[in-house]
Amino acid sequence: MAAFLEPQLLFSNPIFASKASNTTDPHHIHNLKLKLPNFPSKNSALVFNLNSSASFATCNNTVTTPCCVASNPSPSLPPDDPNPNPNPVAVTAPERTREGRDRRKIVKVAWEKLVRWSRSWRSKTKTDVLERTNKVVVLGGGSFGTAMAAHVANRKSQLEVYMLVRDPVVCQSINQEHCNCRYFPQHKLPENVIATTDAKTALLGADYCLHAVPVQFSSTFLEGIVDYVDPGLPFISLSKGLELNTLRMMSQIIPQALRNSRQPFIALSGPSFALELMNKLPTAMVVASKEKKLANAVQQLLASNHLRISTSSDVTGVEIAGALKNVLAIAAGIVEGMDLGNNSMAALVAQGCSEIRWLATKMGAKPMTITGLSGTGDIMLTCFVNLSRNRTVGVRLGSGEKLDDILSSMNQVAEGVSTAGAVIALAQKYNVKMPVLTAVARIIDNELTPKKAVLELMSLPQVEEV
Fold first, then answer.
1. Is the pLDDT of residue 28 over 70?
2. Residue 107: CB partners within 8 Å, gap ≥ 6?
3. Among 29, 247, 336, 362, which lies 20 to 30 A Cα-Cα from 225?
Protein backbone atom coordinates (compact mmCIF):
# COMPACT_ATOMS: atom_id res chain seq x y z
CA MET A 1 0.00 0.00 0.00
CA ALA A 2 2.79 2.43 0.88
CA ALA A 3 4.13 2.12 -2.61
CA PHE A 4 1.06 3.77 -4.02
CA LEU A 5 1.50 6.76 -1.70
CA GLU A 6 4.76 7.85 -3.29
CA PRO A 7 4.87 11.47 -4.58
CA GLN A 8 4.73 10.37 -8.22
CA LEU A 9 1.36 8.69 -7.67
CA LEU A 10 -0.83 11.52 -6.44
CA PHE A 11 -4.52 10.72 -6.72
CA SER A 12 -5.34 13.93 -8.56
CA ASN A 13 -2.56 13.70 -11.18
CA PRO A 14 -1.53 11.19 -13.90
CA ILE A 15 0.90 8.51 -12.79
CA PHE A 16 4.23 8.70 -14.58
CA ALA A 17 6.66 5.79 -14.67
CA SER A 18 10.09 6.25 -13.12
CA LYS A 19 13.11 6.88 -15.27
CA ALA A 20 14.46 3.44 -14.32
CA SER A 21 11.49 1.77 -15.93
CA ASN A 22 11.17 0.76 -19.54
CA THR A 23 7.44 1.53 -19.36
CA THR A 24 7.59 5.26 -20.05
CA ASP A 25 4.61 5.48 -22.34
CA PRO A 26 1.64 6.91 -20.40
CA HIS A 27 -0.69 4.74 -22.49
CA HIS A 28 0.53 1.66 -20.57
CA ILE A 29 -1.56 2.80 -17.61
CA HIS A 30 -5.32 2.50 -17.83
CA ASN A 31 -7.37 1.23 -14.91
CA LEU A 32 -6.03 0.58 -11.44
CA LYS A 33 -8.15 -1.21 -8.85
CA LEU A 34 -6.48 -0.85 -5.50
CA LYS A 35 -7.54 -2.85 -2.48
CA LEU A 36 -7.65 -0.49 0.53
CA PRO A 37 -7.14 -1.81 4.10
CA ASN A 38 -9.79 -1.62 6.82
CA PHE A 39 -12.76 -1.43 4.45
CA PRO A 40 -15.74 -3.46 5.71
CA SER A 41 -16.35 -5.24 2.43
CA LYS A 42 -13.97 -7.89 1.20
CA ASN A 43 -14.22 -6.71 -2.37
CA SER A 44 -14.10 -2.97 -1.67
CA ALA A 45 -11.74 -1.26 -4.06
CA LEU A 46 -10.69 2.19 -5.18
CA VAL A 47 -10.80 2.61 -8.94
CA PHE A 48 -8.41 4.87 -10.84
CA ASN A 49 -9.51 5.89 -14.33
CA LEU A 50 -6.43 7.24 -16.00
CA ASN A 51 -7.61 7.19 -19.63
CA SER A 52 -4.77 5.09 -21.02
CA SER A 53 -4.71 1.86 -23.01
CA ALA A 54 -2.87 -0.45 -20.62
CA SER A 55 -3.89 -1.64 -17.18
CA PHE A 56 -2.48 -3.34 -14.17
CA ALA A 57 -3.45 -6.96 -13.63
CA THR A 58 -5.72 -7.07 -10.62
CA CYS A 59 -7.86 -9.49 -8.70
CA ASN A 60 -9.94 -9.21 -5.58
CA ASN A 61 -7.03 -9.65 -3.22
CA THR A 62 -3.87 -8.81 -5.16
CA VAL A 63 -2.35 -5.92 -6.98
CA THR A 64 0.20 -6.42 -9.71
CA THR A 65 3.08 -4.10 -8.90
CA PRO A 66 4.18 -1.93 -11.82
CA CYS A 67 7.88 -1.56 -12.56
CA CYS A 68 7.88 2.00 -11.25
CA VAL A 69 6.89 0.84 -7.74
CA ALA A 70 9.05 -0.87 -5.15
CA SER A 71 8.51 -4.62 -5.11
CA ASN A 72 8.54 -4.81 -1.30
CA PRO A 73 6.04 -2.22 -0.12
CA SER A 74 6.05 -1.26 3.52
CA PRO A 75 3.12 -2.22 5.75
CA SER A 76 -0.19 -0.47 5.26
CA LEU A 77 -0.39 2.96 6.86
CA PRO A 78 -3.12 3.42 9.48
CA PRO A 79 -5.98 5.68 8.49
CA ASP A 80 -5.87 9.32 9.66
CA ASP A 81 -9.22 8.90 11.39
CA PRO A 82 -9.02 6.34 14.25
CA ASN A 83 -12.75 5.73 13.80
CA PRO A 84 -13.32 5.88 10.06
CA ASN A 85 -16.82 6.09 8.76
CA PRO A 86 -17.71 2.52 7.70
CA ASN A 87 -20.04 3.88 5.03
CA PRO A 88 -18.43 6.95 3.49
CA VAL A 89 -20.76 8.94 1.26
CA ALA A 90 -19.10 10.32 -1.82
CA VAL A 91 -20.15 13.84 -2.89
CA THR A 92 -20.06 14.18 -6.63
CA ALA A 93 -18.98 17.33 -8.46
CA PRO A 94 -22.53 18.08 -9.70
CA GLU A 95 -23.81 17.89 -6.13
CA ARG A 96 -21.12 20.27 -4.91
CA THR A 97 -21.90 22.63 -7.76
CA ARG A 98 -25.60 22.54 -6.97
CA GLU A 99 -24.98 23.20 -3.27
CA GLY A 100 -22.71 26.12 -4.10
CA ARG A 101 -25.30 27.51 -6.47
CA ASP A 102 -28.01 27.21 -3.80
CA ARG A 103 -25.85 29.02 -1.26
CA ARG A 104 -25.07 31.81 -3.68
CA LYS A 105 -28.78 32.17 -4.39
CA ILE A 106 -29.55 32.48 -0.67
CA VAL A 107 -26.88 35.16 -0.26
CA LYS A 108 -28.12 37.01 -3.33
CA VAL A 109 -31.73 37.01 -2.11
CA ALA A 110 -30.66 38.23 1.34
CA TRP A 111 -28.64 41.06 -0.18
CA GLU A 112 -31.46 42.08 -2.51
CA LYS A 113 -33.86 42.22 0.43
CA LEU A 114 -31.41 44.45 2.30
CA VAL A 115 -31.06 46.76 -0.69
CA ARG A 116 -34.83 47.02 -1.14
CA TRP A 117 -35.27 47.75 2.56
CA SER A 118 -32.56 50.41 2.36
CA ARG A 119 -34.16 52.10 -0.65
CA SER A 120 -37.57 52.06 1.00
CA TRP A 121 -36.12 53.55 4.18
CA ARG A 122 -34.26 56.29 2.30
CA SER A 123 -37.40 57.24 0.41
CA LYS A 124 -39.09 57.91 3.74
CA THR A 125 -36.14 59.79 5.25
CA LYS A 126 -36.95 63.39 6.04
CA THR A 127 -34.65 66.19 4.96
CA ASP A 128 -36.64 69.12 6.31
CA VAL A 129 -34.18 69.72 9.18
CA LEU A 130 -31.31 70.41 6.81
CA GLU A 131 -33.58 72.48 4.58
CA ARG A 132 -34.69 74.63 7.53
CA THR A 133 -31.19 75.08 8.94
CA ASN A 134 -29.47 78.31 7.92
CA LYS A 135 -26.64 78.68 10.41
CA VAL A 136 -24.51 76.34 12.51
CA VAL A 137 -21.85 77.48 14.95
CA VAL A 138 -18.81 75.44 15.99
CA LEU A 139 -17.21 76.37 19.31
CA GLY A 140 -13.48 75.69 19.10
CA GLY A 141 -10.93 75.61 16.30
CA GLY A 142 -9.27 72.27 17.01
CA SER A 143 -8.93 69.34 14.64
CA PHE A 144 -12.27 67.68 15.26
CA GLY A 145 -14.19 70.96 15.42
CA THR A 146 -12.67 71.90 12.07
CA ALA A 147 -13.51 68.52 10.53
CA MET A 148 -17.12 68.74 11.68
CA ALA A 149 -17.42 72.33 10.44
CA ALA A 150 -16.24 71.22 7.00
CA HIS A 151 -18.60 68.25 7.04
CA VAL A 152 -21.68 70.30 7.93
CA ALA A 153 -20.75 73.03 5.43
CA ASN A 154 -20.56 70.43 2.66
CA ARG A 155 -24.08 69.29 3.47
CA LYS A 156 -25.58 72.48 2.00
CA SER A 157 -23.77 75.26 0.16
CA GLN A 158 -26.25 77.91 1.36
CA LEU A 159 -25.58 76.99 4.99
CA GLU A 160 -23.44 79.39 7.04
CA VAL A 161 -21.01 77.57 9.33
CA TYR A 162 -19.31 79.86 11.83
CA MET A 163 -16.26 78.74 13.79
CA LEU A 164 -15.57 80.58 17.05
CA VAL A 165 -11.79 80.43 17.51
CA ARG A 166 -9.42 82.17 19.91
CA ASP A 167 -6.30 82.31 17.70
CA PRO A 168 -6.38 85.32 15.29
CA VAL A 169 -3.87 83.60 13.00
CA VAL A 170 -6.12 80.56 12.62
CA CYS A 171 -9.10 82.85 12.12
CA GLN A 172 -7.35 84.68 9.31
CA SER A 173 -6.17 81.50 7.59
CA ILE A 174 -9.71 80.08 7.56
CA ASN A 175 -11.25 83.24 6.13
CA GLN A 176 -8.53 84.10 3.62
CA GLU A 177 -6.86 80.81 2.69
CA HIS A 178 -9.83 78.53 3.48
CA CYS A 179 -7.74 76.20 5.61
CA ASN A 180 -6.91 75.72 9.27
CA CYS A 181 -3.18 76.51 9.17
CA ARG A 182 -2.58 74.85 12.53
CA TYR A 183 -4.31 71.49 12.10
CA PHE A 184 -5.19 71.00 8.42
CA PRO A 185 -2.93 73.21 6.30
CA GLN A 186 -3.28 70.87 3.30
CA HIS A 187 -7.08 70.57 3.36
CA LYS A 188 -9.28 73.10 1.62
CA LEU A 189 -12.30 74.14 3.68
CA PRO A 190 -15.65 74.93 2.05
CA GLU A 191 -16.08 78.63 1.36
CA ASN A 192 -19.19 78.76 3.57
CA VAL A 193 -17.01 78.07 6.64
CA ILE A 194 -16.42 81.42 8.35
CA ALA A 195 -14.16 81.99 11.34
CA THR A 196 -14.50 84.66 13.99
CA THR A 197 -13.09 85.48 17.41
CA ASP A 198 -16.29 87.27 18.42
CA ALA A 199 -18.79 85.12 20.33
CA LYS A 200 -21.78 87.36 19.63
CA THR A 201 -21.21 87.25 15.88
CA ALA A 202 -20.75 83.50 15.92
CA LEU A 203 -23.85 82.68 17.99
CA LEU A 204 -26.32 85.22 16.64
CA GLY A 205 -29.13 83.41 14.83
CA ALA A 206 -27.53 79.97 15.06
CA ASP A 207 -29.83 76.95 14.66
CA TYR A 208 -27.39 74.41 16.10
CA CYS A 209 -24.17 74.60 18.10
CA LEU A 210 -21.33 72.08 17.92
CA HIS A 211 -19.30 72.27 21.14
CA ALA A 212 -15.68 71.23 20.50
CA VAL A 213 -13.89 72.86 23.44
CA PRO A 214 -11.83 70.45 25.63
CA VAL A 215 -13.74 69.30 28.72
CA GLN A 216 -11.41 70.85 31.31
CA PHE A 217 -11.84 74.33 29.77
CA SER A 218 -15.52 74.09 28.83
CA SER A 219 -17.10 75.45 31.98
CA THR A 220 -15.02 78.65 32.05
CA PHE A 221 -15.43 79.14 28.32
CA LEU A 222 -19.22 78.75 28.38
CA GLU A 223 -19.61 81.07 31.35
CA GLY A 224 -17.88 83.72 29.24
CA ILE A 225 -20.34 83.48 26.34
CA VAL A 226 -23.56 82.78 28.24
CA ASP A 227 -25.04 86.18 27.38
CA TYR A 228 -25.03 85.34 23.66
CA VAL A 229 -26.54 81.83 23.87
CA ASP A 230 -30.20 81.40 23.02
CA PRO A 231 -32.00 79.28 25.68
CA GLY A 232 -33.38 77.00 22.96
CA LEU A 233 -30.13 76.53 21.03
CA PRO A 234 -29.33 72.78 20.80
CA PHE A 235 -25.78 72.00 21.95
CA ILE A 236 -24.15 69.03 20.22
CA SER A 237 -21.17 68.05 22.36
CA LEU A 238 -18.09 66.69 20.60
CA SER A 239 -16.00 66.81 23.78
CA LYS A 240 -15.19 63.57 25.61
CA GLY A 241 -14.08 63.37 29.21
CA LEU A 242 -14.88 64.11 32.84
CA GLU A 243 -14.23 67.37 34.65
CA LEU A 244 -11.35 66.65 37.00
CA ASN A 245 -12.56 68.23 40.24
CA THR A 246 -16.32 67.90 39.89
CA LEU A 247 -16.53 64.56 38.00
CA ARG A 248 -19.16 66.14 35.76
CA MET A 249 -19.90 65.02 32.20
CA MET A 250 -20.64 67.44 29.38
CA SER A 251 -24.36 66.84 29.76
CA GLN A 252 -23.99 68.39 33.22
CA ILE A 253 -21.32 71.00 32.45
CA ILE A 254 -23.14 72.71 29.57
CA PRO A 255 -26.53 73.35 31.23
CA GLN A 256 -24.93 74.42 34.50
CA ALA A 257 -22.41 76.75 32.89
CA LEU A 258 -25.17 78.33 30.77
CA ARG A 259 -27.47 78.56 33.82
CA ASN A 260 -30.22 76.79 31.92
CA SER A 261 -31.22 73.29 33.03
CA ARG A 262 -33.43 72.97 29.94
CA GLN A 263 -30.73 73.77 27.40
CA PRO A 264 -31.16 71.14 24.65
CA PHE A 265 -28.24 68.70 24.75
CA ILE A 266 -26.96 66.00 22.38
CA ALA A 267 -23.82 63.90 22.76
CA LEU A 268 -21.99 62.93 19.56
CA SER A 269 -19.52 60.07 19.88
CA GLY A 270 -18.06 57.08 18.11
CA PRO A 271 -14.89 55.93 16.33
CA SER A 272 -13.91 59.00 14.34
CA PHE A 273 -10.50 60.48 13.65
CA ALA A 274 -10.70 64.06 12.40
CA LEU A 275 -8.26 63.41 9.55
CA GLU A 276 -10.34 60.59 8.10
CA LEU A 277 -13.52 62.64 8.43
CA MET A 278 -11.81 65.45 6.53
CA ASN A 279 -10.86 62.94 3.83
CA LYS A 280 -14.50 61.81 3.61
CA LEU A 281 -13.70 58.22 4.48
CA PRO A 282 -16.66 56.05 5.63
CA THR A 283 -17.39 56.76 9.29
CA ALA A 284 -20.16 55.83 11.73
CA MET A 285 -21.11 57.70 14.90
CA VAL A 286 -23.99 57.93 17.36
CA VAL A 287 -25.99 60.90 18.67
CA ALA A 288 -27.57 60.52 22.10
CA SER A 289 -30.31 62.64 23.59
CA LYS A 290 -33.08 62.11 26.10
CA GLU A 291 -35.38 63.75 23.55
CA LYS A 292 -35.96 61.38 20.64
CA LYS A 293 -37.09 64.15 18.28
CA LEU A 294 -33.93 66.10 18.96
CA ALA A 295 -31.72 63.07 18.28
CA ASN A 296 -33.57 62.43 15.02
CA ALA A 297 -33.16 66.07 13.99
CA VAL A 298 -29.41 66.01 14.56
CA GLN A 299 -29.23 62.73 12.68
CA GLN A 300 -30.84 64.44 9.67
CA LEU A 301 -28.46 67.37 9.98
CA LEU A 302 -25.25 65.32 10.09
CA ALA A 303 -25.86 62.07 8.20
CA SER A 304 -24.36 61.87 4.70
CA ASN A 305 -23.16 59.29 2.20
CA HIS A 306 -19.88 58.93 4.10
CA LEU A 307 -21.07 59.53 7.67
CA ARG A 308 -23.62 57.21 9.24
CA ILE A 309 -25.41 58.53 12.31
CA SER A 310 -27.25 56.24 14.71
CA THR A 311 -29.47 57.54 17.50
CA SER A 312 -29.60 56.63 21.17
CA SER A 313 -31.39 57.71 24.33
CA ASP A 314 -28.55 56.52 26.59
CA VAL A 315 -26.70 59.78 27.13
CA THR A 316 -24.86 58.47 30.21
CA GLY A 317 -23.59 55.37 28.46
CA VAL A 318 -22.38 57.28 25.41
CA GLU A 319 -20.60 59.91 27.51
CA ILE A 320 -18.99 57.54 30.01
CA ALA A 321 -17.73 55.24 27.27
CA GLY A 322 -16.33 58.21 25.37
CA ALA A 323 -14.56 59.51 28.47
CA LEU A 324 -13.12 56.27 29.79
CA LYS A 325 -11.86 54.95 26.44
CA ASN A 326 -9.28 57.76 26.48
CA VAL A 327 -7.81 56.43 29.73
CA LEU A 328 -7.82 52.88 28.39
CA ALA A 329 -6.03 54.09 25.25
CA ILE A 330 -3.19 55.37 27.44
CA ALA A 331 -2.93 51.90 29.01
CA ALA A 332 -2.84 50.30 25.56
CA GLY A 333 -0.10 52.71 24.52
CA ILE A 334 1.96 51.80 27.59
CA VAL A 335 1.75 48.12 26.64
CA GLU A 336 2.92 49.00 23.14
CA GLY A 337 5.72 51.22 24.43
CA MET A 338 6.96 48.47 26.74
CA ASP A 339 6.78 45.94 23.89
CA LEU A 340 4.77 43.49 25.99
CA GLY A 341 3.27 41.68 23.01
CA ASN A 342 -0.11 41.00 21.47
CA ASN A 343 -1.35 38.65 24.19
CA SER A 344 -0.85 41.35 26.78
CA MET A 345 -2.53 43.98 24.61
CA ALA A 346 -5.64 41.87 24.01
CA ALA A 347 -5.96 40.95 27.68
CA LEU A 348 -5.54 44.54 28.84
CA VAL A 349 -8.11 45.99 26.42
CA ALA A 350 -10.61 43.24 27.24
CA GLN A 351 -10.18 43.93 30.96
CA GLY A 352 -10.52 47.66 30.35
CA CYS A 353 -13.75 47.15 28.42
CA SER A 354 -15.15 45.21 31.37
CA GLU A 355 -14.16 47.95 33.79
CA ILE A 356 -15.88 50.59 31.65
CA ARG A 357 -19.01 48.44 31.50
CA TRP A 358 -19.01 47.89 35.26
CA LEU A 359 -18.89 51.60 36.03
CA ALA A 360 -21.26 52.68 33.26
CA THR A 361 -23.98 50.23 34.28
CA LYS A 362 -23.64 51.26 37.92
CA MET A 363 -24.30 54.82 36.74
CA GLY A 364 -27.43 53.74 34.91
CA ALA A 365 -26.10 53.13 31.39
CA LYS A 366 -27.31 50.30 29.18
CA PRO A 367 -24.78 47.46 28.72
CA MET A 368 -25.53 47.32 24.98
CA THR A 369 -24.32 50.92 24.64
CA ILE A 370 -20.86 49.87 25.80
CA THR A 371 -20.71 47.27 23.02
CA GLY A 372 -21.80 49.78 20.37
CA LEU A 373 -20.15 52.56 18.39
CA SER A 374 -19.48 54.86 21.34
CA GLY A 375 -18.10 51.97 23.40
CA THR A 376 -16.33 49.10 21.71
CA GLY A 377 -16.08 50.98 18.41
CA ASP A 378 -14.31 53.98 19.90
CA ILE A 379 -12.20 51.80 22.19
CA MET A 380 -10.83 49.77 19.29
CA LEU A 381 -9.98 52.90 17.34
CA THR A 382 -8.16 54.72 20.15
CA CYS A 383 -6.39 51.66 21.56
CA PHE A 384 -5.04 50.15 18.36
CA VAL A 385 -4.39 53.03 15.93
CA ASN A 386 -1.37 55.34 15.97
CA LEU A 387 -3.44 58.47 15.19
CA SER A 388 -4.82 58.39 18.75
CA ARG A 389 -3.37 61.18 20.91
CA ASN A 390 -4.03 59.27 24.13
CA ARG A 391 -2.43 56.10 22.81
CA THR A 392 0.60 58.15 21.76
CA VAL A 393 0.96 59.47 25.32
CA GLY A 394 0.88 55.88 26.58
CA VAL A 395 3.47 54.69 24.08
CA ARG A 396 5.86 57.41 25.14
CA LEU A 397 5.24 56.71 28.84
CA GLY A 398 5.92 53.02 28.25
CA SER A 399 9.12 53.94 26.44
CA GLY A 400 10.39 55.78 29.52
CA GLU A 401 9.59 59.43 28.77
CA LYS A 402 8.34 61.81 31.45
CA LEU A 403 4.73 62.99 31.27
CA ASP A 404 5.64 66.69 31.43
CA ASP A 405 7.97 66.33 28.47
CA ILE A 406 5.32 64.46 26.51
CA LEU A 407 2.59 67.03 27.11
CA SER A 408 4.82 70.01 26.41
CA SER A 409 5.66 68.59 22.98
CA MET A 410 2.02 68.10 21.93
CA ASN A 411 -0.14 70.69 20.19
CA GLN A 412 -3.40 68.91 21.02
CA VAL A 413 -5.09 67.93 24.28
CA ALA A 414 -5.02 64.28 25.36
CA GLU A 415 -8.20 64.16 27.44
CA GLY A 416 -7.31 60.84 29.05
CA VAL A 417 -4.50 62.42 31.07
CA SER A 418 -6.84 64.70 33.02
CA THR A 419 -9.73 62.24 32.98
CA ALA A 420 -7.81 59.37 34.62
CA GLY A 421 -7.95 60.80 38.14
CA ALA A 422 -11.62 61.66 37.77
CA VAL A 423 -12.40 58.13 36.63
CA ILE A 424 -10.93 56.63 39.80
CA ALA A 425 -12.81 59.08 42.01
CA LEU A 426 -15.99 58.15 40.18
CA ALA A 427 -15.24 54.45 40.60
CA GLN A 428 -14.86 54.94 44.36
CA LYS A 429 -18.14 56.83 44.45
CA TYR A 430 -19.96 53.91 42.83
CA ASN A 431 -17.87 51.22 44.60
CA VAL A 432 -16.43 49.69 41.41
CA LYS A 433 -12.98 48.07 41.23
CA MET A 434 -11.07 49.20 38.13
CA PRO A 435 -7.49 47.81 38.31
CA VAL A 436 -6.30 48.78 34.82
CA LEU A 437 -7.67 52.32 34.80
CA THR A 438 -6.50 52.87 38.39
CA ALA A 439 -2.99 51.82 37.36
CA VAL A 440 -3.05 54.42 34.57
CA ALA A 441 -4.03 57.14 37.04
CA ARG A 442 -1.18 56.12 39.35
CA ILE A 443 1.32 56.23 36.49
CA ILE A 444 0.10 59.68 35.41
CA ASP A 445 0.46 60.91 39.00
CA ASN A 446 4.06 59.62 38.91
CA GLU A 447 3.37 57.32 41.86
CA LEU A 448 3.90 54.11 39.91
CA THR A 449 6.22 53.18 37.06
CA PRO A 450 4.78 51.32 34.07
CA LYS A 451 6.94 48.27 34.87
CA LYS A 452 5.80 48.19 38.50
CA ALA A 453 2.18 48.62 37.42
CA VAL A 454 2.41 45.60 35.12
CA LEU A 455 3.94 43.44 37.85
CA GLU A 456 1.24 44.39 40.36
CA LEU A 457 -1.59 43.87 37.86
CA MET A 458 -0.26 40.41 37.00
CA SER A 459 -0.03 39.57 40.72
CA LEU A 460 -3.71 40.27 41.39
CA PRO A 461 -5.76 37.28 42.62
CA GLN A 462 -6.95 34.79 40.01
CA VAL A 463 -10.72 35.31 39.98
CA GLU A 464 -13.79 34.29 38.05
CA GLU A 465 -14.45 36.33 34.94
CA VAL A 466 -17.50 38.58 35.22
1. no
2. none
3. 247
